[in-house]
Amino acid sequence: MNILPLTSDARVGVLLLAAIPGTPISLQFTRLAKTRLAFGAVMTFILSVLVLELMPRIVQRSEDEFTLLRAKLARCRLRTL
Predict the structure, then answer these.
(1) Residue of 20, 12, 13 whose CA lies nearest to 66
(2) pLDDT digit string (tens) for 2-40?
(3) Domain count of the fold of the chain
(4) Does any domain span residue 2?
(5) Mean pLDDT over the full length of the chain
(6) What DSSP string runs through 3-41?
């Protein structure tokens, strides 16, 4: 499925933006929920550390998915020719 016509580099960039943890806005949510600032700071720290572990896995999995999708599309194009 191709919603936006993007180059493969742009797709990877969008993927990375989607995988960024919510640390920039976690303190805003803490303020809006009127909870303790320390809780928000700890959550920001945990998300920042967690992303170091998860980012390579997310990128690798999405790269595998893009590769499989390209292979399927190539096979479909060959069948229609």
Answers:
(1) 12
(2) 667 778 777 777 766 666 666 667 777 777 777 777 877
(3) 1
(4) no
(5) 75
(6) SS---HHHHHHHHHHHHS-SHHHHHHHHHHHT--HHHHH
